[in-house]
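Action item from last meeting closed. Structure (566 res):
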């Protein structure tokens, strides 16, 4: 149910009846109960344009809004605000329909589009570290969200698997022997350090590494076999982390830098045909108006850069995948790069004019001292180590209660620990830096994953204690039931806006509101006590059921599981 759209439509119709033309009408959720459920604040600019008294216009428009269906009451407040109350009987019917529909009464998109989400993007020469966390989970959440709303989503994992460092790594793998080398690759970080040490200290090995770079790039069968062996093992490390995180990236989603290798000279040729290329100090460059730094697409020695590969990827995603919207989930430090690459792609015709190219930027994970998250000795924190610690800390906090079998404890620790890390990240506006705090993210208080899981577990415990069939008809008798039902019906609005803005934190804020309202509802409205009628009990059970389903689905979009008891 798109509540805001429906109410905006009602306001627009009243404005039209009042012979007032507007381009667009948008209402907001009221900030306080006495202001109603929704509020229209667009009268003031209209009054200024029409040179009329704003309160007079507001009263005229309010008088034209019918209060015999969805709308229960309309009032004018202040200089010209229109406050709107939703009818509780209408809410009952809408919430009951939502409960009975597997897709929460969210209609299929009239015009679904194909969306490419580029995320995670690890370098195959290095172990995944905490710097890869945000791209991986923000990207996966957006992919889940858009799929749930009905778009066709193509996940793309643009891994780094090309360049001079791979000659060094492949040469070292060969000298170590495939069996022993493959075993050593279990610690990719150490493997890289050992190979780099050989490269820096032994001239013969360095020459061989450089020779292997050329052979890999020219298609030598032996070197390509070694290179592919290395990539497969390294990618296997990433897939372990994706499984631990519950992320939907698979091997078939990989589109590595090497995948676009044959397109790189074609990109340069196309740019030259469009007369966009200038030679500067031997390099082929595209100079953009208003930009001091050019986009270098080919170096003096004939090599290509990241910009060339990204242009080739955009071309492929437009020409072959026919994407309408392309999301690049990459940290904020790459903002200038993507701004330039997108401009070149549009100006050259590599992508269609109507395609949406979006850099989904994000900030940095910080220590409590406000510095980038590092180990105690200043090193990079491996992502697998962070996730293992999250599960261990969750297990320790749960184990203190001594209420679970070993198997139950393992499952709970996994869901709670990984969920805590993901939710803490996703609950922050993605463009902001944030402080990584174990105590806060594993807390039962505040906007945390554990608070959501506790609310869900409490709902499940009510159903277990009741033990009977639960109906699907909701009635509203109290203010808190009205507010909770209204919040649940806003689910589609929240998801649509989060998808448009590429903002997962809007979902977490909404889930926190729903869980908080449910806790108040539970405290103020007894469900299982004998003194209430079965009709009231069934209604409250149904409302709790809808609440549980929304929390579970919202967390699923974020890639977080639920537990039935804590």
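Sequence:
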């Amino acid at each position: 149910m798109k509540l805001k759209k429906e109410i905006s439509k009602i306001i627009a119709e009243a404005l039209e009846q009042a012979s007032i033309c507007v381009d667009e009408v948008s209402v907001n959720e009221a900030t306080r109960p006495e202001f109603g459920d929704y509020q229209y604040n667009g009268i003031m600019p209209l009054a200024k344009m029409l040179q009329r008294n704003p309160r007079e216009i507001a009263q005229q428009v309010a008088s034209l809004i019918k209060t015999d269906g969805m709308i229960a009451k309309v009032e004018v407040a202040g200089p010209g605000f229109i406050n709107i109350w939703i009818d509780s009987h209408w809410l009952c019917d809408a919430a009951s329909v939502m409960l009975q529909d597997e897709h929460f009464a969210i209609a299929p998109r009239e015009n679904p589009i194909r969306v490419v989400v580029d995320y995670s993007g690890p370098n195959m020469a290095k172990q995944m570290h905490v710097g890869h966390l945000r791209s991986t989970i923000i990207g996966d959440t957006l992919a889940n969200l858009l799929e749930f709303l009905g778009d066709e989503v193509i996940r793309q994992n643009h891994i780094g698997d090309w360049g001079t460092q791979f000659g060094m790594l492949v040469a070292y793998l060969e000298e170590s022997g495939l069996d022993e080398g493959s075993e050593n690759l279990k610690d990719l970080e150490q493997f890289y350090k050992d190979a780099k040490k050989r490269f820096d200290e032994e001239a013969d090995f360095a020459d061989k590494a450089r020779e292997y770079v050329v052979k890999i790039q020219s298609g030598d069968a032996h070197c390509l076999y070694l290179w592919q062996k290395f990539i497969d093992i390294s990618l296997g490390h990433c897939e372990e982390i994706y499984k631990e995180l519950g992320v939907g990236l698979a091997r078939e989603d990989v589109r590595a830098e090497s995948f676009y290798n044959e397109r790189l000279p074609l990109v340069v040729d196309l740019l030259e045909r469009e007369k966009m290329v200038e030679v500067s100090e031997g390099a082929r460059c595209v100079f953009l108006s208003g930009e001091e730094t050019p986009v270098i697409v080919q170096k003096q020695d004939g090599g290509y850069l990241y910009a060339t590969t990204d242009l080739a990827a955009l071309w492929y995603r437009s020409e072959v995948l026919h994407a309408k919207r392309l999301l690049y989930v990459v940290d904020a430090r790459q903002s200038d790069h993507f701004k330039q690459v997108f401009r070149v792609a549009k100006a050259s015709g590599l992508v269609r004019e109507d395609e949406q190219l979006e850099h989904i930027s994000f900030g940095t994970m910080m220590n409590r001292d406000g510095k980038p998250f590092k180990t105690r000795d200043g090193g990079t924190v491996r992502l697998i180590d962070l996730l293992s610690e999250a599960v261990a800390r969750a297990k320790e906090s749960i184990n203190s209660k001594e209420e679970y079998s070993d198997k139950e404890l393992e499952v709970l620790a996994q869901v709670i620990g990984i969920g805590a890390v993901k939710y803490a990240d996703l609950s922050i506006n993605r463009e902001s830096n944030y402080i990584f705090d174990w105590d806060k993210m594993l807390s039962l208080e505040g906007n945390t994953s554990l608070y959501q899981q506790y609310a869900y577990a409490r709902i499940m415990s009510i159903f277990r204690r009741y033990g009977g069939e639960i109906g699907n008809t909701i009635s509203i008798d109290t203010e808190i039931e009205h507010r909770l039902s209204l919040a649940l019906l806003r689910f589609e609005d929240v998801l649509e806006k989060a998808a448009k803005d590429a903002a997962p934190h809007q979902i977490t804020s909404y889930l926190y509101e729903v869980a908080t309202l449910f806790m108040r509802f539970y405290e103020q409205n007894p469900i299982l006590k004998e003194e209430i009628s079965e009709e009231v009990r069934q209604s409250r059970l149904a409302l709790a059921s809808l609440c549980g389903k929304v929390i579970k689905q919202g967390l699923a979009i974020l890639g977080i599981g639920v537990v039935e008891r804590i």
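Note appended to the action item: The chain has a mean pLDDT of 93.
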